[in-house]
Amino acid sequence: MNMDMKTAVITGVNGQDGSYLSELLLAKGYRVVGLKRRTSTINTGRIDHLMPNPNFVMRYYDLHDASCINRTFDEFRPDEVYNLAAQSHVAVSFELPEYTSDGICRGTLNLLEAVRRVSPSHECRYYQASSSEMYGDSLPTEETGFNEKSPLCPVSPYAVAKVYAHHMTQTYRKAYGIHASCGILFNHESPRRGETFVTRKITMAAAKIRHGLQKELRLGNLDARRDWGHAKDYVEAMWLMLQQPKGDDYIVATGQTHSIREFLDEVFAYADLGDWKQYVRFDARFLRANEVPFLLGDSTKARQTLGWRPKYDMRKLAQSMYRSDQAMIASAQVAY
Ligand code: NAP
Ligand code: GDD
């Protein structure tokens, strides 16, 4: 190994963000140590293309097991740690509140303790995946949306746990001088987005309807508004945060908000399927015990301090996700 090479540890490496961040860091000449949990079936589809790279190393890990973190840190002495692992589905967190909270809260604390232990003189930098879901059912007081000073009003077990992890990261930064940053990322999607999140559910359904493989699409609340960006843009902001002289908190968002209806308009028009109302059926199973009605982020601080800019807006994002799903379904049909 080249001694000048930086080493980054990424938890949740096989998730949407973990895969894009790994690509970015490998392209920048890092050694990437990717941590993933053991599953009974193989779920490395997003990172299989990285496996042949000698600078990409994988280790097993679980948010609920501190010993694997300590072993990994002792073995690799990371320069940067990106904590991306989480049970990240908000609706599922109502069904699995203990599991979701324990993983996010204890998992974050274990990592912060490990950073403090292996890096007493603060060389190791830490990134925490905080979330716009922490703003909950409050509305922004500014027209430009939520900013880093807006109050946090979480309304799901997932969001409450993310608030804990957010405050714990700030606490370790203040108490021990750790270079720790929280990225308050608004919703970000991509062709690699999990299929149970609303955007991907919609683009997959449109592609299947186009090919005659699906007749209807069942959804819950169509009035919620989200600030949707592309995951590839957002992982760049994560890296930029850790290149600053000090740790800090930054909102990462496009500054535009759209309803689920508007996302449907965009995808079904692009797929040339006519009015989506012909296909979409309301299904109360997809409603949540509490809803976050409105998200819009003001990323002025990230734009000014990090020089970060998103390249994708909702329209470009929706079109690229549909194109990718359409191509995948078309090639699967050829294969059959
Ligand atoms: P994702 O695709 O759901 O990936 C989550 C990763 O965490 C997966 O690799 C998953 O492994 C892993 N994981 C889950 N439970 C685990 C456990 N008990 N032990 C070890 N690993 C575990 O999420 P994402 O969209 O990439 O998001 C990355 C992070 O950013 C998450 O913390 C999420 O909460 C946060 N975030 C996401 C968004 C967004 O819009 N995408 C916005 C704000 C914040 P499996 O594949 O085995 O499940
Ligand atoms: N998943 C899903 N499925 N959501 C639906 C459906 C459906 O069938 N029908 C309507 N929705 C609505 C949800 O009620 C919610 O208001 C909105 O679509 C977005 O839901 P998701 O795509 O599941 O994302 P999320 O906003 O709850 O959470 C995502 O973004 C957070 C950042 O704000 C996740 O990636 C979180 O991990 C992330 O922290």
Structure notes:
The protein is of the alpha/beta class and 336 residues long. The chain folds into 2 domains: 7-189 and 229-252, Rossmann fold; 198-225 and 257-289 and 312-335, UDP-galactose 4-epimerase, domain 1 (Alpha-Beta Complex). The chain has 10 helices and 13 strands. It has helices spanning 16-27, 66-76, 90-95, 97-118, 157-176, 198-210, 231-242, 260-270, 300-306, 314-335, and strands at residues 7-11, 31-36, 56-60, 80-83, 125-131, 179-185, 188-189, 217-219, 225-226, 229-230, 249-252, 258-259, 280-282. It has a 7-stranded parallel sheet, with helices on both faces. The protein has a two-stranded parallel sheet with strand order 7-10. It is globular and about 60 Å long. The mean pLDDT is 96. Guanosine-5'-diphosphate-alpha-D-mannose is lined by residues 88, 90-91, 131-133, 186-187, 196-198, 201, 219-221, 224, 226, 260, 286, 288, 291, 295.
Characterize this entry briefly:
The protein is an alpha/beta fold.
Mind sketching the topology for me?
Elements: E1 7-11, H1 16-27, E2 31-36, E3 56-60, H2 66-76, E4 80-83, H3 90-95, H4 97-118, E5 125-131, H5 157-176, E6 179-185, E7 188-189, H6 198-210, E8 217-219, E9 225-226, E10 229-230, H7 231-242, E11 249-252, E12 258-259, H8 260-270, E13 280-282, H9 300-306, H10 314-335
Parallel strand pairs: 1-2, 1-4, 2-3, 4-5, 5-6, 6-11, 7-10, 8-13
Antiparallel strand pairs: 9-12
The structure holds NADP nicotinamide-adenine-dinucleotide phosphate (NAP) and guanosine-5'-diphosphate-alpha-D-mannose (GDD).
The site of guanosine-5'-diphosphate-alpha-D-mannose has 22 residues, from α3 and α6.
